[in-house]
Amino acid sequence: MSKRPAQSPPLAVVILAAGLGTRMKSDVPKVLHEVCGRPMLAYVIDAALSVSPERVVVVTGPDQDAVAAILPVGCERAVQQERLGTGDAVRAGLEPLSDFDGHVMVLYGDVPLVHGDFVAGLFQRHLDSDAAATLTTVTLADPAEYGRIVRGADERMARIVEHRDATPAELALDEINVGLYVFRADALRPALARLTSDNAQGELYLTDVVHLLIDAEHIVSTFAADDEELCMGVNSRVELALINAAMRRRLLERLMLAGVTVEDPETTYVDWGVEVGRDTVLRANTHLLGRTTVGAASEIGPGSFLRDAFVGDRARVVSSHLYECVIGSGCTVGPFAYIRPNTVLAEGARAGTFVEIKNSRIGEGSKVPHLSYIGDAIIGCDSNIAAGNITANYDGFEKYATHIGDRVLTGSDTTIVAPVTIGDDAFTAAGSVITQDVPPGALGVSRGKQQNIDGYAERRAARRLREQNDAQ
Ligand code: UD1
Ligand code: CA
Predict the structure, then answer these.
(1) Strand partners, 79
(2) CB-neighbour burial class of residue 461 (10 A; exposed 0-12, middle 13-18, buried 19+)
(3) pTM assigned to the model
(4) Atom of ligand 1 nearest to the CA of 205
(5) Which residue among 216, 243, 276, 451 has its CA within the 20 to 30 Å range from the CA of 157?
(6) Taking CB atoms and a 6 Å cutoff, what residues make up the pocket around ligand 1?
(7) Residues involved in catalysis
(8) pLDDT tens figures, 211-245
């Protein structure tokens, strides 16, 4: 549902994302660096879309097709040919909006904790104060490298001073420009046309638009953010880590409020979009990444790493790594299992200790409890694969499939040389190398027959004695 005030005037959002991100020291555009598994720009776009604007324009550099590639349908790209500063970037963003008449919200692509409620509040404040421009400010204990808000004797905002241009007295100011604004388009356009680059960075500053509007006696209002974190911008990887931590905490809080127990939030990592059901417990040192979904009343961890995994209800995953797999309800995994892509554990199945499974289906109630490798196999229901079984699925050229039926009991240390089929209700003897199909109900035995040599210990002792005598 739209968070936009009813019957509000037209709104366009321009998101600035063309900056070089020099301080990131990266070959990847800054706004594509990930926060909880997702490019930071995607969060800003979400915030923009949540107020249902008429248009959303993302300003990128000419060399940033990778940024354009992540834009959702309905978002337009504008290209800023040269990085001449934030003012020039907005000018580029307005090019596709030349016929747009209404309000223009400007968001920075590197301030990703911004969210829909906040953006809606900012827009409402702008409309309520009938301003030509409204900018977000926040008071910070450490105002670092942000632009400082200078207020006049009447407490009205007078100027924004970039930290590089600031005097020591101005640097001591703790109210800063967050970089989230709304302008009236008819006030913004002429002011942008008048910008000059007369400052420490030789750039066209968007913040100077605010000064031009103040000078022309337009109403400029400020919107005080009460959430310091929301205002954090990413300039270096140090800030990227701080933003990740803040976002992660938010995601974990959302899960906890929805009924998930998070044993140790400090060591639990969830990506954006991860879903976890009610009464599930996430134990310490657990990572739920990518498109991972966990059902209700399950227990994940301690020490589990899941990427793009689907886990059902009442399942347990202890100290294991899971990738692109489906773990059915009531399954148990680990400790120390490695479940690789295209593996399905049907309901109630088990993959136990030191077990690796890839591209296989383990049927309902079947168990692979210890020390096994299962690859390219289909195992039916209620079968038990004993300790140390290996599917030999690869001859160095191709991979071959193994089929194991229902209610099969293999012996310990069975090597199953694919392609091979073991029928329903069949058995294999411990230590067998199975190279041929085992029919339903049969026992496959393939090992040397045991021979016992009687009196061996005595013969050995006699030999030792002989050799000692010879040596004297
Ligand atoms: C800017 C503000 C500063 C504020 C801070 C908040 C200006 C002049 N200063 O400073 O007052 O406290 O943000 O985070 O606006 N960009 C372009 N093209 C350009 C330059 C920048 O698209 O030519 C984009 C960047 O990708 C980024 C955003 O604009 O998303 C902000 O640019 P950045 O250089 O990071 O500005 P700051 O120095 O942080
Ligand atoms: Ca910045």
Answers:
(1) 60
(2) exposed
(3) 0.91
(4) 8
(5) 243
(6) 16-19, 59, 80, 83-86, 88-89, 108-111, 146-147, 160, 162, 176-179, 205-207, 233, 235
(7) 370
(8) 999 999 999 999 999 888 888 999 999 999 999 99
